[in-house]
Amino acid sequence: MKLTFWGATRQVSGSMFLLEFDDEYRVLIDCGTDLERENSQDTPKLEYGIFPFDPSLINLVILTHAHIDHSGQIPNLYKEGFEGQVLCTKATMELSEILLLDSASLNQRKFKAIHDSKKRSKKRKDVDSRELFLERQVKEALENFVPIPFDQKFKFKDDGFVTFIPAGHLLGAAHLYIEFSENNEKKTICFSGDVGRKNYPLLVDPQPVPQVDYLVTETTYGDRHHTSENKPEEILGEIIKRACIDIPGRLIIPSFSVGRTQAMLYTLNKLYTDKGFSPIKVFTDSPLAKASTRIYERNVRLLNKQAREFNEENDSLFDFENLVYLESNQASKAVSNHSEPCIIISASGMVTGGRIEHHIQANISNPYATILMVGYASENTLGWKLLNGERKDLTINGQKLPVNAAIEKVDVFSGHGDLDDLIDFVKTQNKEKTKKIFLVHGELHTMQNFKNTLADVGYNQVEIPEKGQVFEI
């Protein structure tokens, strides 16, 4: 069998791995958007439209989880000729639907911008229209999603089986354990997807994977430790006290709509319910966050024991006094006039587009405002500048603004496992029996450091693939 690495190679996003069995059956593991290339001016010329392979020859897609850097190109796969099914967990299917439809809505606006620029005889070099799928392509794709339960061995071809093992990280996220036979020899391979962290709000801990011959693992935090040591509600409670109680201020939290916002709302609910905090008005400003929260509510049985018990005792994970979901852009902008202390949670987490931009713009110069960064931000995004101290003046939507707001950051809400979590994940594998470990989904220097760390504990058969590199396994 051949394994070709078509994405998330020596970078974080765009997960896409092709398995070609000896009987010419082809399985694509994840089909994600390359966010690094999307934010650059580089539009490579590919032999098959936007893919480096013929989509019509792919028999099956197996999806680890719903995040766009793992699922975002699936509608385009169908647009370019793929006719097979997508296997994933039920929760992944539900979250993928809202995420892909949201992307289609954004693409519609991009198409309009391209059309308008052509009418004005201007070229837009920042958008590759080949990748702009619409709602009809999303619906076509969703008709072919097949939900598979966790921990159930599923036969996808003759002598080919897949088991979805809980990975934490996001509702429905899975490690893929694949078993197959070729030339009367049984072989196994695991694709980690994104490895979650232990004791994360709502989610189960990542579960161990059986021994495999080959392991493909993410490395996002492969050279870093999470620094926050206290419980999420203790950390968030202290910040709220400083930002909204000690002074009559407002707390602005850039947060991804799917996963991160639910962890924030659950933690706030616990604070108000268990810690006796007087409920400060909380504005959740993202329609996508509201939709994904409802999916979490429908899948309580997949959450960790603490969340299930809290839900049973309080009849709700996320709804609490003074929680307001903002639907329209008009309602979102009106919050700027709210005079009482409040908390505003809005997307995106990197402060790249979305409603969070106008909240930051309206509050960055307010000395009674606090901006709390709760996750990773790509280099040169506004979120990255806030995280890394570029705060003398910031230009937002063409307006240069002084930074008078307090800027804080925590990593307790990051859904990725850190160095210790990744080492624990790899250590489920016997170093004498694992033939090869492939490192993906991380920055190159992080992968190199993680490779050295693995060598220190005895794992020497480690590869850092390049894009398009093929391995016989």
Automatic annotation (TrEMBL):
Among the Pfam families in the record, one is Beta-Casp
Tell me which residues make up the Beta-Casp domain: 261-386
Say yes or no: keyword Nucleotidyltransferase present: no
User: What SMART domains does the record point to?
Assistant: Beta-Casp, Lactamase_B
The superkingdom of the source organism is Bacteria
Q: Which UniProt keywords apply?
A: Hydrolase
Q: What EC number(s) does the entry state? A: 3.1.-.-
Q: Which residues form the Metallo-beta-lactamase domain?
A: 13-250
Please give the Gene Ontology molecular function terms for this protein: hydrolase activity
Q: What class of enzyme is it?
A: hydrolase
What this protein is called in its record is: Ribonuclease
* The organism of origin for this protein: Emticicia aquatica
What lineage does the source organism belong to? Bacteria, Pseudomonadati, Bacteroidota, Cytophagia, Cytophagales
